[in-house]
Write a structure and sequence with these properties.
The protein is an alpha+beta fold. Helices cover about 30% and strands about 25% of the residues. It contains four helices and five strands. Strands 1-2-3-5-4 form a five-stranded antiparallel sheet, covered by helices on one side. It is globular and about 35 Å long.
């Protein structure tokens, strides 16, 4: 693994067509990025967030989209640009959506991310929007390495 992989800023973009098959491709690409940067402990939550954002872009727009992932100052930002300039519908609480088959995406993002938002953003002379969320490294569970595990007191001791 690269030295300082967790502290040095980096960013990646994945341009995706409007195709439902891009959702698992985006998810797997994100997991690979986080793995090579030593941030696998963020992968499960980050994959969930990216899945919701990419799914919304593919499902609710007709044009291309792009997944953008950035690591800066111990914060992972996951964002998706799509070709629809209309703002996303604001999420209801998850409790209100318990029986609903649709409309939970941004509610899940709101519940799992530290911060989320959107902004109008044109790309390559195409109008659109950028929906993003932040996941702070401090919110992730601590990694247990073999050395740390051995140092932790046993529940039976």
């Amino acid at each position: 693994m690269l030295e300082n992989a967790e502290t040095e800023p980096w960013e990646y973009s994945l341009h995706i067509p409007n195709d439902p098959r891009t959702v698992p491709i985006s998810r797997r690409t994100l997991r690979l990025i986080l793995t090579v940067h030593g941030l696998i402990h963020l992968a499960d939550t980050a994959e969930l967030l990216a899945t919701e954002l990419v799914s919304n872009a593919v499902r609710h727009t007709k044009g291309p989209a792009a997944l953008h992932v950035r690591w800066l100052a111990d914060v992972l930002r996951i964002g998706v640009w799509d070709a629809d300039p209309e703002p996303p519908e604001l999420p209801c609480s998850l409790d209100q959506l318990a029986e609903s088959e649709e409309g939970r995406g941004l509610a899940i993002v709101q519940a799992c991310a530290d911060l989320w938002g959107w902004q109008p953003l044109a790309r390559h002379d195409k109008p659109g929007k950028y929906v993003w969320c932040d996941l702070a490294a401090a919110q992730a569970p601590a990694r247990v390495t073999p050395a740390r595990q051995a140092a932790q007191p046993s529940a039976t001791a």
